[in-house]
Amino acid sequence: MSDAHERTAALDDLLKLLELERLEVNLFRGVSPDEDRQRVFGGQVAAQALVAAGRTIEDDRAVHSLHSYFLRPGDPNIPIIFEVDRIRDGRSFTTRRVVAIQHGKAIFNLAASFQVHEDGPDHAMEMPEVPAPEDLPTFRERIEPYISKFGPEATQWLVRERPIDSRPVDDPHWLEPAPRAPSQDVWIKTNGRLPDDPLLHACVVAYASDLSLLDTATLPHAIGHSGGYMMASLDHAMWFHRPFRADEWLLYHQTSPSAYGARGLALGHVFRADGTLAITVMQEGLLRPMRTPEVNA
User: Which of 51, 52, 116, 288 is deepest in the core (most CB within 10 A)?
Assistant: First the structure.
């Protein structure tokens, strides 16, 4: 059976988003899913920008880091143009800068570095002890007892088919908002098999890494998704340490060391199921309290 037959329709849709159209040597065009969104999901534009950078890289080099800024909300109703700047092609490292453009303005900026394989010292932090993903309920099973709390549209959104199988160790905070420690563990993998392209696996994890990371900074404050705060990713950085597959279980261990000045900082470590540290992620996001209109007494 081919890989395509082992994938869900939702995962196929995600892979289509990552199949950018080449317009010129260093110019690519991407689209957004046909969904009722107010803005483009940050993980999508980050993954597409990494695809654009990777299309200009030799096969012997793998991405080892990216640093990016979200500059403006993306418009999901029009294509995104990705312009790649070939900053440096060295003997060991290759650097690319990618600017995502809509309506004539930059909405996202990414710098990515690629490296040939080299040997060197090897150490890493240990994976925390958590239940295995097979021992945890699926996302749908997790939210099933709470479905009556949501309206028809929200329920349809929550139970939709997803490209990423996500299994949190604890109930998501928005099901029962209450102050808790700024830490969460979530097992993730694609809902289906992927081709063996390492860059594709990196791009898929870049997409998935933005799904829950900023939420970690809201946990001590019982901030749910029902309003009251303007939340948005401001920047996103990733370091790819060791080989991994996005279609095999990965533990996403997330913590938040600080929240201040209407900003929250979150740190993520992605481990393979065998306990090997594969990726480190950091993100700062906007956590701005919404001001209610003043009412004249």
Answer: 52
In this prediction, residue 5 has a pLDDT band, given cuts at 50, 70 and 90, of low
Residue 38 pLDDT class (50, 70, 90 cuts): confident
Tokens coding 210: 């933005």
Domain ranges of the chain: 4-116+149-288
- Count other Cβ atoms within 10 Å, centred on residue 280: 17
Secondary structure tally for the chain: helices H, strands E: 5, 12
DSSP-assigned letters across all residues of 88-150: EE-SSEEEEEEEEEETTEEEEEEEEEEEE--------PPPPP---GGGS--HHHHHGGGGGGS
pTM of the model: 0.92
Instruction: Establish whether 283 is a catalytic residue.
Output: yes
**Active site (annotated) includes residue 92:** no
Catalytic residue among 32, 166, 233, 256: 233
Which numeric CATH code is attached to 4-116+149-288?
2.40.160.210
What gap in Å lies between CA 208 and CA 4, rounded to an integer?
Answer: 20
Selecting among 210, 212, 254, 256, the annotated active-site residue is 210
210 catalytic? Reply is yes
pLDDT tens readout for residues 109-123: 999 999 999 999 999
